[in-house]
Amino acid sequence: MVIFIPIMFAILLFSIILSFMGISVVDQAKQVASNIPVLSNYVKTEDQIIAEEEKANIDELMAIINARETELSLLEQTLSTKEEEILSLLNEIEILMGQLEEKKETQLEVKTEYIEIAKLYETMSAKNAANILTQLSGDEAAIHLSFIKIDARAAILAKMAPDKAAELISLLSDN
Length: 175
Fold this sequence. Notes:
Layout: H1 4-20, H2 25-35, H3 46-123, H4 126-135, H5 138-146, H6 150-158, H7 162-174
Helix pairs in contact: 4-6, 5-7
C-alpha cells in the first residue's frame, strides 16, 4: 500500500498537469489501451466509435436502398402489366369501332331498303298496300309503315281490318 498510493497520486497529479497543458489523458489512455491485445476488445477510441456508427448508418441506408429498389421493381412490373392491359383495351376499342362502323353501314343499307319499299307502297293503291301489309307479321308491317309518309300511311290503315290497323297503330306508337 505504501508504494501503490503514492504511485496513484503521482499518476493523478501528472494527468491533471497534462490536461491543463491541453493534452487529453483519457484519449491517450484509450489509444494505448486499444493497442494492447486483450484490452483492445473492451476499449474503443473515438475514431473506432465513429467508424462503427458510420458502418451502422451505411448498413441502414443500404437496407433502405434495397427496399426502395424492390419497391421500384414491383412498380415497374405493375406499370408494364398496366401498359399491356391498356394496349389490349385499345385493340379491343379498335375492333369494336370497326364493328360499329360495319353495323352503321348495315343499318344504313337496311334503312335505304325500307325507304325504297315505302316508296313502292306509296305508288300502289292503298287497298293493295293494305292487303300486302296484312300478310306480314305485326312487327314487320309496323316497320314498313314507319317509313311510309303519313298521308299514305293513313290511307293504307283505313283500308285494313280494324283489329289489324289497331295493332299496327299500337306498334307504331311504341316505336
